C-alpha cells in the first residue's frame, strides 16, 4: 500500500490562502555578541514548496530551530498558520513536522518502536499509529530492518526514519534541514515523490539544502540568507528575471540557473562561480 504523507482531511483544515503558513517579523537571534539571524522578515504562502538557501554559517539552521520551537528568538515574532507561535506553541507544534539537522533519534529503539512512540506522542490512536508505522517502514524500504536498533542504522537509513517520524501525523507544514544529505539516489527519488505528493494535497514544505539542483527542481519560491540577513526572497522566476536584468544583451539562450542566481545574489565569482585569479591555488597547476 502506498503511504500518503499528509492526512487525507488536510484540505479541509488548511489555513486561508491570504494567511501565510509561515511568517516572521524582525526575527533575530544572538549568541552573546554574535548575531546569527538578524532582522529576518520571511513570508511563506500555504501550499508552497519553499527553499531556504545560504552558505555555511549563514543562519539557516538557527532560523529553522526558531521556527519549530527548538530555539527561542532573541527578538522578533513568528507566526505559524496565522497564529503567534509563542502564544500557542503546543497546539501549533502538532501541525508541523521537523527533520532537524542532527536528526535527534532514539538510538536504543527499533524503527517500529520509534515510530510508534512518535505517533502516540502526536495523539494518534493505537490502530492508526500501527497502520501508519507499517506503511511508512514499507515506503522507506525499512520494513526488513524492524529488529535492528536505530543506532545500528546507516546515516541514510536514519535520515529516512527521521522523515517518516516527521510525517506520521500528517503535518500541515514540514520543515526539512538538509533532508537529502547522505541519502542514495534511489531513496532520494522516493522522498522527492513523497514531498511532491504532500504539496499536491495542500501541505507547505520549508526546505534547506546545499544541493541547488534539487531545490531548483522541487521549489517554487526561495529565500537566500547571508551572514544572518535575508538578501533575496521571491519566486524562482522573479529572482531569475532580476539576475537576467542585470546582464542585458548577454545573448544567452538558456534561463539563469538557481546556482547562477545564488552566486549573483551573494556576489560570488560574478555569478559564474569561477574564482578570481588571485583566489586560485597555483600549486594545483
Key terms for this structure?
2 domains; six-stranded mixed beta sheet; 10 helices; 34% helix; disordered N terminus
The number of domains: 2
Count the strands? 11
By helix and strand content, what is the structural category? alpha/beta
CA-based gyration radius: 20 Å
The portion of residues forming beta strands comes to 15-25%
CATH class of the largest domain: Alpha Beta
Which percent range fits the helix content?
25-40%
What's the CATH topology name of the largest domain? Rossmann fold
Strand order of the largest sheet: 7-8-9-4-10-11
Mean pLDDT: 87
User: Can you tell me the overall shape?
Assistant: globular
Give the H and E element order.
Answer: HEEEEHEEHEHHHEHEHEEHH
Please provide a written account of the structure.
Helix content is 34%, strand content 21%. It is built from 10 helices and 11 strands. The protein folds into 2 domains: 12-95 and 171-284, P-loop containing nucleotide triphosphate hydrolases (Rossmann fold, 3-Layer(aba) Sandwich), CATH 3.40.50; 106-170, no CATH class. Helix 4 crosses helix 5. It has a 6-stranded mixed β-sheet with strand order 7-8-9-4-10-11, sandwiched between helices. Strands 1, 2, 3, 5 and 6 form a 5-stranded antiparallel β-sheet that branches.
Question: What layout of secondary structure does this protein have?
Answer:
Elements: H1 10-13, E1 22-31, E2 34-40, E3 43-44, E4 49-53, H2 60-67, E5 75-80, E6 83-84, H3 89-93, E7 96-99, H4 111-121, H5 126-139, H6 155-167, E8 173-177, H7 185-200, E9 204-208, H8 212-218, E10 221-226, E11 229-235, H9 236-245, H10 258-266
Parallel strand pairs: 4-9, 4-10, 7-8, 8-9
Antiparallel strand pairs: 1-2, 1-3, 1-5, 5-6, 10-11
Amino acid at each position: 500500500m502506498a503511504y500518503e504523507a499528509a492526512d487525507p482531511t488536510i484540505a479541509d483544515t488548511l489555513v486561508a490562502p491570504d494567511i501565510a503558513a509561515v511568517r516572521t517579523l524582525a526575527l533575530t537571534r544572538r549568541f552573546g555578541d554574535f548575531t546569527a539571524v538578524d532582522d529576518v522578515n520571511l513570508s511563506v504562502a500555504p501550499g508552497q514548496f519553499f527553499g531556504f538557501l545560504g552558505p555555511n554559517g549563514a543562519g539557516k539552521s538557527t532560523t529553522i530551530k526558531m521556527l519549530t520551537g527548538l530555539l527561542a528568538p532573541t527578538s522578533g515574532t513568528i507566526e505559524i498558520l496565522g497564529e503567534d507561535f509563542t502564544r500557542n506553541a503546543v497546539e501549533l507544534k502538532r501541525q508541523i513536522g521537523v527533520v532537524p539537522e542532527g536528526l535527534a533519534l532514539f538510538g536504543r529503539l527499533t524503527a517500529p518502536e520509534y515510530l510508534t512512540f512518535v505517533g502516540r506522542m502526536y495523539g494518534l490512536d493505537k490502530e492508526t499509529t500501527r497502520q501508519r508505522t507499517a506503511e511508512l517502514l514499507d515506503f522507506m524500504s525499512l520494513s526488513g530492518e524492524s529488529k535492528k536498533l536505530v543506532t545500528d542504522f546507516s546515516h541514510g537509513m536514519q535520515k529516512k526514519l527521521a522523515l517518516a517520524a516527521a510525517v506520521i501525523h500528517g503535518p500541515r507544514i514540514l520543515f526539512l534541514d538538509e533532508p537529502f544529505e547522505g541519502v542514495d539516489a534511489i531513496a532520494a527519488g522516493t522522498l522527492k515523490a513523497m514531498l511532491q505528493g504532500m504539496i499536491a494535497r495542500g501541505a507547505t514544505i520549508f526546505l534547506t539544502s546545499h544541493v541547488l539542483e534539487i531545490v531548483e527542481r522541487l521549489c517554487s519560491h526561495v529565500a537566500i540568507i547571508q551572514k544572518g540577513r535575508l538578501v533575496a526572497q521571491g519566486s524562482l522566476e522573479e529572482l531569475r528575471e532580476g539576475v537576467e536584468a542585470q546582464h542585458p544583451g548577454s545573448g544567452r539562450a538558456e534561463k539563469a540557473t538557481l546556482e547562477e542566481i545564488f552566486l549573483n545574489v551573494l556576489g560570488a565569482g560574478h555569478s559564474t562561480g569561477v574564482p578570481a585569479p588571485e583566489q586560485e591555488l597555483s600549486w594545483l597547476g
